[in-house]
Fold:
Amino acid sequence: MSSIVSAAPHTWPAELFIGGRWTAAADGGRMDVIDPATASVIASVASASVVDVDAAVAAAQDARRGPWGRMTGRERSRILLRAVELMRERTEQLAQAESLDGGKPISLARAIDVPGAIDQFEYYATLAPHIDGAVRETAGQTFAFTRREPRGVIAAISPFNFPLILAASKIAPALAAGNAVIHKPAPQTPLSALLLAEILAEAGLPAGVLNVLPGAGAELGDALVRHPGVDMVAFTGSTTIGRIVARTAGECLKPVMVELGGNGANIVFADADLAKVVDTVIGSFVYNTGQFCMAGTRLIVERPIYSTLVDLLAGAVGHVPVGRPSDAGTVVGPLVSAAQRDRVEAMVDGAVAAGGRVVAGGTRLDLDGGFYYPPTVVADLPNMAEAVQEEIFGPVLTVQPFDDESEAIALANSTAYGLAAGVQTADISRAHRVAAALDAGLIWVNTWSALDHAVPFGGVKSSGWGRESGPEALDSYLRVKSVTIAVDPGPAG
Ligand code: NAP
Structure:
């Protein structure tokens, strides 16, 4: 196994992981991994091609026919729980990997990403022994029951913004259900995915049950989705690519989960606790440098408190610590790439051209050659402005006023997305009414981003379909088989 050394004393695997072995790409391909904080190359990682997809699928199918396919849920659970212990022991190494290639502040990686991924494995390890079917009453002389079986080989494709948590949110339930997995991490952030493969192998996962194919470009992902040996696709990423993945999976008639982009609306009524709202709102759009699908990027504020809240936010945003991901006090680090920083900058410029008023941020930050853009608040935009309607995927908040509850709901539901939405109010009846009326998969009342792996996570409309987390995710990785057995009525019949 070759490994890279980029932040002593930590090392990371740097090859493909197929059939339990570290292996070079068949065509010798490699890709550079960039540190977004400095724009420098920190690693060279093997880059898979279509030929490697064939090898990974064959390894996964072999693994399904081997001991893994015969294990009970309790046996699978033991392996996952051993992985949980190893992940806990290697928390710092996982956090360093997560921070280094994604530019994620190390304090967030330690406090949220690594524990969040560990939680997923622990949660699904506890569910694995309880996968059972049902006995159904039948009218004839038969005995009928259902079996909940693994789907087979899962292609798990993930984006760059939460590499470890999003890998875990697919791999943990898929393995708990007894599937084999081929994981394609995003090319910007492959390090933690490779570490996770190493950890699961050390925990006793049989060879070929988890295969990891880092690589860049649509061809690799497309080959995975299309491969006849892949039985299900679990995709998280942009709405644009999600549409392509869903279309291809549809042509192949294979089940697909698509967890896609978002553009969360957060409605603030005049009776809300404003000091609390300011903290909630800032967290809702600066967390992970705004690169999170459930970001609350559209603030919709009741007119009597509109100016006050805009002023409070403008003041508070200036105190958010922006800086190097390696500094423990940093809350906002760099964006993942120069392209992402340029996109965010162009969206803010477009917002100004559309009549928006920048009340905080709005100018890129020069630091170490990294891809920094500060938290930015744009007020007074018309609802049809691109910055309001589209996902920006950077630390940018738009603010709009409303006059009554129905207008607030109409504004909140006016984009193509439907992942997250929220309402901040002291009136509990209004909270219930608005939560029911918001067209999104996740609703937060007097909070934002409160997540628990027991609670299903996913969107509606152009934010995709399917649910991660909770027993719902486990169900997605299982298929139901009905078995009906003739029963001889015997002498009395
Ligand atoms: P992306 O560009 O859609 O890429 C996601 C993954 O898809 C990458 O691994 C990418 O690989 C791969 N891919 C590209 N073309 C493909 C194809 N034709 N077939 C199969 N796979 C293909 O997304 P991103 O920029 O990494 O991530 C940001 C997006 O993810 C945002 O829109 C965000 O909202 C969304 N997201 C959603 C959730 C959720 O749960 N709803 C969570 C996190 C992020 P290459 O880059 O190598 O092409």
